[in-house]
Amino acid sequence: MGLSCGAKCAKGFLVTFNLIFWISGCFIFAVGVYLLVDKEKATLFHLLAEPGLKHALDQYLAWALVAIGGLVFFGGFCGCCGAIRENRGLLVTYFVFLFLIMGAELAVGILSVIFQNKTLTRLDELSTLLKDEYGINGQTTEAFDFAQTKFNCCGILGPQDYADSNWMTQDLGKGDTVAKTCCVLSNADHLDPKPLNSTGCQSDKAAENSMFRHEKGCLGKIENFLRDMTILFVAIGCGAAALEIFGMIFSICLCKEV
Which residues cross the membrane (predicted)? Predict the structure, then answer.
């Protein structure tokens, strides 16, 4: 028995949708991998890691994107096979996959907002982290140095964060009053910072250090980074979930006719 005109349209739309679906899966997978392997983001995420956890909460969402991207490949295969072969079992499987993927994508978007609010409430603790671990913990030190170099800032609340830090009391800076990455640099390398004027930067007198030292703390810039990540996760999660609705509609229409 031949398909009706509407069912043929649904079949055509479903095949076309799956091409878009696969492309979206590649994009989601690529974004997840990028967030996990990009050195800059991994370094900043280290500052946002929850106590007791190895990674920042957003990094777990990036792993979720990688997994969702993989599911899209399998789900799209079922949808294409079901549409071309007009197989109701594959179409039902495809519908279930779309439903599960849509739920997972919505969860990523919602959790990103929850994680953002949770992380924002403890960003002030980064000032304590700097005082306790800067110059002592290598990975933490690199993360602060990178943030200060990238955002042209100093400390979390300001240069005063270094005043009573372990870095200062243990003289790990060898007489410096702030980290070298707090200075205006002649290069942009946080691993080998070269201050434009080291003497002026390390001076205790505001009139001398104001031109050669960053006076603003990094807190605002780190907050902006966190919010940008949240916008990215919400856009991907909710945007892709909206796309899945069309695939579910087309699969239902075609399933009713075969």
Answer: 12-37, 60-84, 91-115, 231-255
The separation between CA 136 and the C-alpha centre of its own chain, rounded to angstroms, equals 27
Q: How far apart are CA 15 and CA 150, in angstroms?
A: 45
Cβ–Cβ under 8 Å, residues 69 and 26: yes
How far is residue 141's CA from residue 129's CA, in Å, rounded to a whole number? 10
Q: For the segment 213-249, what is each residue's pLDDT rounded down to a tens digit?
A: 999 999 999 999 999 999 999 999 888 888 778 777 7
Which tens digits make up the pLDDT trace of 102-115? 899 999 999 999 99
Give 21-68 pLDDT, tens digit per residue. 888 888 999 999 999 999 999 999 999 988 777 889 999 999 999 999
